[in-house]
Amino acid sequence: MIQVSIVIPVYNEEESLPELTSWVKEVMLREGLSYELILVDDGSDDGSWKVIQEICQSEKQVKAVGFFRNYGKSAALDMGFARARGNVVVTLDADLQDSPEEIPELYAMVQDEGYHIVSGWKKKRKDPLTKTLPSRFFNFVTRLISGIHLHDFNCGIKAYQLRVVKNLHIYGEMHRYIPLMAKWNGFGKIGEKVVTHQPRKYGTTKFGIERFINGFLDLISVSFVNRYKRNPMHFFGTLGTLSFITGFIITIQLIVEKIQGLNKGIPVREITEQPLFFLALVAVIVGIQLFLTGFLAEMMTSNNSRRTDYNIAEELNMDH
Which of 86, 139, 266, 303 gets the most CB atoms within 10 Å of its CB? Predict the structure, then answer.
């Protein structure tokens, strides 16, 4: 039985891989933990895959998957999760900034203390301000939206129960929001551990401003999808109803004002000549469209609903 599966996405890290895999092996042997190391090469264009092939030939615990091109960290993690078999799954970055020395304690927190997820917190970061300041703002906003009190959502070192990763599908840049997605799938016991952050020894950072912008777009996306994917009418129907009622009330008000003006002999502009009338008309039309969108989305959701959409925690005395 494998106790720990270690999943490491790799992108242009040929220099760090031999040292990283040796370090992982040293820690696992010292702690007496059975393990598998899964390296997922995310379309590296340096010599990373060749180094991985050499490591796999000499180390039977090391397994590898290689992509034809770069798909992103989320795709690499998703592929590694699909192949993991250990009771606890630990993720590390390949740049040696995450220390394998943290693995035994992370394993104990998940295996012995029952955490669904334990996320690392790089309390003292060895990164420039251009990376740390946006990260702090990003984490602050994510805490507000998710209600999960983690200091570092994007920390590369995390530990999961095996059933957690098997019930998640991550894509795009969603790896930043795995704790959020796990919580909405019923895995709410999420812990945090302060981890050592090493200065970068080889290569250059893959961080760019576009990843910061994409991160917030993905936060909006994952928040919307996870909250409303099974009941889209709650979102579109609510907005549509509010828009329709607003337009209807404005129209009634204009009609009442017109009638009162006529009764009192006061000159009143034609309803169709008032800007408010067109605002009301737009609100009514938008409201109807939103409501119909929600109705159609609800029909599609019901047709595509499957029993596999639900995460089963346990079954007792069931005949299969």
Answer: 86
